[in-house]
Design brief:
Strand content: 5-15%
Structural class: alpha+beta
Strand order of the largest sheet: 4-3-5
Bound molecules: manganese (II) ion
CATH superfamily of the largest domain: Fe,Mn superoxide dismutase (SOD) domain
Number of domains: 2
Radius of gyration: 18 Å
Largest sheet: 3 strands, antiparallel
Shape: globular
Helix content: 40-55%
CATH class of the largest domain: Mainly Alpha
Number of strands: 5
């Protein structure tokens, strides 16, 4: 993480003062910074941040190799965060919450939309995985059985979405009105966006851009998806149900 510069430090101070003054405000969505910057009109806007990786680069070996993790996190993800924050400033966007930001996805510039998605989706993705085995909670398991028939049927449908996503994109498990759904999104879109085909609260995601697996798996996306199941953080997915 780069050290805080003076401008950001000042903005964080203002954000903290604002929070204290406003009092009980809704917590930001996971993956969003509680910090902000001032636009040229003096309005406070969201600034995306790159969450620290919750484990070392080599922690998910052999399922996901250290070199891929390092490049993915320190180059690809870092670039999305840098680019979206630059674009937010250049375009004087003043959205104040994550919900507001993605709720306006269809009217954002391609640069903001793609990089905002990239910034948020990767924070979500890193936190969706862990080195030690975990299992769905009883509540999540019951929701999986109710929505898909069985855990194996869910896995099969999720794999199909991940494998079938043409080109770059993501597959998601989302929670919507008491049911679980699976959807794929192109590029850096996500199910929180106003123009998503399937909307809902994301519980789990897999990045199926080639940069996520090509070094180790080359064209064998199926092998990467199979390995992903070894490192899913099911406790986190259950926690995200709320
Ligand atoms: Mn990626």
């Amino acid at each position: 993480m780069e050290p805080l510069n003076r401008r950001k430090f000042i903005a964080m101070g203002l954000a903290a003062a604002g929070t204290a003054a406003i009092g009980n405000i809704a917590a930001p969505l996971e993956g969003f910074a509680a910090e902000s910057h001032l636009s040229t009109t003096g309005e406070r806007a969201f600034e995306f941040k790159q969450d620290p990786l919750p484990y070392p680069y080599n922690a998910l070996e052999p399922s996901i190799d250290a070199r891929t993790m390092e490049i993915h996190y320190s180059k690809h993800h870092a670039a999305y965060v840098k680019n979206v924050n630059e674009a937010i400033k250049a375009e004087n966007l003043t959205y104040k919450t994550a919900e507001e930001f993605f709720a306006h996805a269809s009217s954002l510039s391609a640069k903001v939309k793609n990089n905002a998605g990239g910034a948020w989706n990767h924070n979500f993705f890193w936190a969706s995985m862990k080195p030690s085995p975990s299992a769905p909670s009883a509540k999540l398991k019951a929701a999986i059985d109710k929505s898909f028939g069985s855990f194996d049927a869910f896995k099969s449908e999720f794999t199909k979405a991940a494998l079938g996503q043409f080109g770059s994109g993501w597959a998601w498990l989302v929670w919507d009105k008491g049911m679980l759904k699976i959807t794929g999104t192109a590029n850096q879109d996500n199910p929180l966006m106003d123009n998503a085909a399937v909307k809902g609260k994301p519980l789990l995601a897999i990045d199926v851009w080639e940069h996520a697996y090509y070094l180790k798996y080359q064209n064998k996306r199926n092998d990467y998806i199979s390995a992903f199941w070894n490192v899913v953080d099911w406790e986190k997915a259950a926690e995200r149900m709320g």
